[in-house]
Amino acid sequence: MSDTILTIGADGKFAGLVVPALAARGAHARGLVRKPENADAVRAKGAAEVAIGDLGDTASIDRALEGVGSVFYIAPAFLPREADVGEAMVAAAIRAGVRRFVFSSVIHPVLSGLSNHLAKAPVEEAVLDSDLEYSFLHPTLFFQNYAAGWGKVVETGVLAEPWSTNTRFSRVDHRDVAEVAAIALTEDRLNYGTFELCAEGALDRHDVAALIGEVLGREIGTERIDPAGLGDAAAPMRPMFDRYDRFGLRGNALTLRAILGREPRTLRAYFAELAGATH
Predict the structure, then answer these.
(1) Distance of alpha carbon 21 from alpha carbon 175, whole angstroms
(2) In 78-170, beta strands by DSSP E
(3) How far apart are CA 211 and CA 217, in angstroms?
(4) In the structure, how many helices (H) and strands (E) does the chain have?
């Protein structure tokens, strides 16, 4: 099997973390990016090669897969026709003679009311209906989602999200997910496994605000944003907000702890990093 690993979304804020995790293990990573101007940044993260391509362009994907032995695949958030694109990626990997396929799916892909969850199931099925070695990663919400709104929380002293302040969520640092992906791509011990990836704990917004308050040394309040006021741009996310409002999203940290051989990163430590970066 070729040692070259193709990493999809190598210039993304989440999938981009897989490239340095592979580089840390001495792996030969080829990063796939859509825009040529992002190539240098991906090389700076540790990619040995960069391929330019688009998931909707079969020819560019076929070129990117030439000489590749393993693939890390993740779909962009709320990608139109996500299941079809994922199935096409699996088919392209098979055509190219790829042996190993690591798919970053999502926690609870059986949730039929959430299109961004349900679209992962056909991709997993396509892999299962092949001879590919595989690992399915099922991460929960990422700590890194807090980064975009961190400045506003610091400025206003309020943590606000468009669902209930009382529903509970498991979360995970995507650097831990990236480390698991790198293990799956470079070792055999995760072959043919499906792995729920969560840090310890299931926190509601009051709990999260309390952690931020500990880090910042002042009280942080909580609010629920009315999703109806977010406009048309948020329309694809409304079913997700509705579910989060009623049920939250929970998982278990045991699997991640076992794979890493250490405790997963904590949300409090992540907030401390964000606070340090703003000073």
Answers:
(1) 8
(2) 100-104, 133-139, 141-142, 158-161
(3) 10
(4) 12, 11
